Amino acid sequence: MNNKQEVADPATTSVKRVSWAGRAADVLERSLAIIAGASFVVISALTVLQVITRYLLAAPPSWTGELAQFIFVWLAWLSSAIVFRHGQHITIDAIVGLIPYKLKRIHELFVQLCCLGVLVFFVWYSFEMLEFTTTISAALSIDMRFVYVSSLVGSLCMLAFALLDGIEKYYKKEQGYAQ
């Protein structure tokens, strides 16, 4: 077996990807991070506009709050996909500390399968929710499916990360890279 080591890129402090899947996941993550960052800037600008127009002009626009809420929903789902990729969701580490070393891999697999099950559930019911949604937003008069589709997109991104990172791990194992 080859004893290759992963190479850390000093510019980004990230691990060098060795397969197309890892590179594709990195591109998806960077894209989501850019969209999330832009969303945060837009939410901030809308909030400042709302405050300025409320206190200086005494005539705040009715649509800024609603738009900020809708963008925030998208921001939450897209950011959760990035957090999912890095395994940084809330976990209960006390239980993991009690598991013997040999069973930790089985535990990790079980947790990943549970996460995949929840994501498949989200995707399935996001489609059903979109099918039956007919409401229009009050201030912007847009179809609420625009907001609700964020759960589908976020869940699909998380599933894509699970699949692409799984392929990357398999490829590294086959190529003999150190884990």
Describe the structure.
It is a single chain. With 179 residues, the chain is mostly helical. The protein has one domain (13-175). The chain is built from 5 helices and 2 strands. The chain has helices at 20-55, 63-85, 93-98, 101-132, 145-175; strands at 8-9, 14-15. It has a two-stranded antiparallel sheet. Helix 1 runs antiparallel to helix 2 (63-85), helix 2 runs parallel beside helix 5 (145-175) and helix 4 runs antiparallel to helix 5. It is elongated, with a radius of gyration of 21 Å. The two termini are 13 Å apart.
Compact summary:
72% of the residues lie in helices and 2% in strands.
Spatially, the strands of the biggest sheet line up as: 1-2
Any idea what the shape is? elongated
Tally of structural domains: 1
- The string of secondary-structure elements, in order, is EEHHHHH
Low-confidence stretches: 1-13
* Estimated structural class: mainly alpha
Structural topology:
Blueprint: E1 8-9, E2 14-15, H1 20-55, H2 63-85, H3 93-98, H4 101-132, H5 145-175
Antiparallel strand pairs: 1-2
Sum up the structure in keywords.
two-stranded antiparallel ribbon; 179 residues; mainly alpha
